[in-house]
């Protein structure tokens, strides 16, 4: 059995762009691709996974997040691409986790006929619990990054709106001062006598 490999990457995907990644995978290896769009636009991206022959194993359009598990049907280089070609002016930040293979057993002689000792069983259960904690931490880290991005975007919009309101208030105030001044300005009228 081969050791498990995992790639976790967060990258910027510009507008009208496509980014591809390649992984050499042996036949019969179980793999999982999980991705999530953290920032940008409607938080959606196109994703496509192909085997070495170019056969499409997975294709989704405009997804915010998804997970796909497959078993490699043959040896070779598998390709998965993220596309933002449908977006004209918003770039995205995309996170993906690509896991190849199964985790090696905690105890190499775990397949033995004898039962595990109580200490070994406790170690295995703690190891499994720690793996789930790592998954939860990754999930909450992504949620926090997404929330922070939305909050910063909202803060920027509120700042621009406040500046706009201040400018409008200033223009209206100056306009009212000139209008009131025109009401009370002393206009001299000249009268002429028409004599007979």
CATH architecture of the largest domain: Sandwich
Q: Flag low-confidence runs.
A: none
Please list the strands of the largest sheet in the order they lie side by side: 1-8-3-6
The H/E string reads EEEEEEEEH
The biggest sheet, with number of strands, parallel, antiparallel or mixed sense and barrel status, is:
4 strands, antiparallel
Strand percent estimate: 25-35%
Number of continuous helical runs? 1
For the record, the CATH class of the largest domain is: Mainly Beta
Determine the N-to-C terminus distance.
126 Å
Please indicate the count of domains: 2
Structure description:
This protein has 196 residues and is of the alpha+beta class. The chain has 2 domains: 1-102, Sandwich (Jelly Rolls); 121-184. Helices cover 34% and strands 33% of the residues. The chain has one helix spanning 118-184; strands at residues 5-13, 18-25, 30-39, 45-50, 56-63, 65-71, 76-83, 92-100. The strands form 2 sheets. The chain has a 4-stranded antiparallel β-sheet with strand order 1-8-3-6, covered by helices on one side. A 4-stranded antiparallel β-sheet has the order 2-7-4-5, with no helix packed on it. Strand 4 and strand 5 form a beta hairpin. The chain is elongated. The model has no long low-confidence stretch (mean pLDDT 86). Pfam families: EMP24_GP25L.
